[in-house]
Structures are given as structure tokens and as C-alpha cells.
Amino acid sequence: MATAVDLIDTEGVAALTMRRLGARLDVEAMSLYRYVNGREDLLEAVVDALVDTIEIPGPGQLQPIDGWQAFLQVLAHDVRRLALEHPAAFPLIATRHPAAPWLRPPLRSLRVVEAFLDGLRSRGFNDSQAVAAYRSFTSFLLGHLLLESAMQGADMSPAEEPLDEGDADLPNQDAELSLAEYPTLTRLRSALTEDHTEDEFEQALEHLLVRLDLELSQ
After folding, report:
1. What are phi and psi of 209, to 5 degrees?
2. Residue 38: left if φ>0, alpha if ψ -120 to 50, beta else—which one?
3. Which of 168, 132, 146, 147 is nearest to 43 (CA)?
């Protein structure tokens, strides 16, 4: 998967095809179908590999007593590290449909969301506060880091139509995910699924206006 990521980093998402990847690996493109069913599966594998590098602050970095602000700061900087290292690939993380509608990019894996919610709950957040923080935090990361990726030359054009090759899984089809290993997600799944986007937009806009008003009054 490192070769696929490198191909995107150097030539852009459009360059990642079975043929081009085969050429990079010095193998026939058809031989790749033993590992993935087509380009859509390949793109999903790239997203999964990149998101899997996100590190949730743990005992080796922070203790619960360090506070929720430090927890979110460390996590935010690590996600920004991912966006800066792979600006051409970050729009894939941000825009491809996650495995479930309540997994919001860029924190879009079960492991990451479970650890995020647990990290906040261990620092004094109740369930509803942790879910609200997940929504706000992902919105902040997504907006800022997509803009930063664009400034580094990432292609922000609309995604191509999914290419159905063989038995490749197409995006925008919600998966039935096993949550057996994620008790916090199991408990909070219903709350995470609720749609509060209109309220979130108005609240974020209000906070921006208040911040600008404070700056103007100084």
C-alpha cells in the first residue's frame, strides 16, 4: 500500500490506476486483482492505511490528568501531520463515504472514534458532551485541513464516478460494521447518528462572529 500512497503523493489521485500501480511495482496490472478487486477497493485501502496512522494520545504521551485541551491539541496536530505529509491524498480521506454515516472524516475509523470518545470521557465529558465534541472537532479539522491541502496543490475537483471493476466495493454504500470490540461506540451509536448539521453550522457561525467582534473591540 505504501507504493499506492507514494503514487498519489507524487502524481495525484487520478494517477492511481491498476495499470500505473502495476508499472510502479514492475508487475502486470492483472496480477493485482489477486489482492484487490479494482480501483475502488484500492482507493479504500489507501484511505484505511492513512487513517490507521492517526495516533490517539495514550499513556505514553498524555495522562488523563493532562486535561481534555491537551488531548485534543495533540490529536489535532497528528491529523494535521497526516494532511501535510499527504496533501494530495487527504481529500480522499475527507470526501469518500465512510463505512457508516456516523463515522465523520477525517476521524473515520472505529478504532479512532472509540479512542476519541473514551479519551474525552476519561477527562470529564459525559456521553452527550463527547458526541458533540466529536462533531465539532471533526468539522474544524475537515474545513481547515482541506483548505490547507488545497493551498499545497491538492486536486479538489469533484470525484469521478465510481469505477466498478470486477467485484470492487463501490463507495456510498453503508456497511454493516461489527462493533463487538467497541463498547463505547455500541452505546453511543444512536447519538452519533443524529443529524445536527444545521444547529452546528449556526453555532459555529455565531462563535466566529463573537470572535471577530472581540478582535474589533480591542
Report:
1. -65, -40
2. left
3. 168
User: Is there a contact between 88 and 80 (Cβ–Cβ < 8 Å)?
Assistant: no
* Closest-CA residue to 195 (of 104, 94, 61, 97): 104
- 34: DSSP letter: G
pLDDT for the residue 172: 45
Residue 145, pLDDT above cutoff 60:
yes
Provide the residue type at 125 as one letter: F
Q: What is the pTM of this model?
A: 0.83
How large is the C-alpha radius of gyration of the chain?
19
CA 165, CA 179: separation in Å to the nearest integer? Answer: 29
- Cis status of the peptide bond prior to 98, with omega within 30 of 0: no
State the DSSP H helix or E strand holding residue 191, giving kind and residue range, or none if neither.
helix 183-193
What's phi and psi for 125, nearest 5 deg?
A: -80, 140
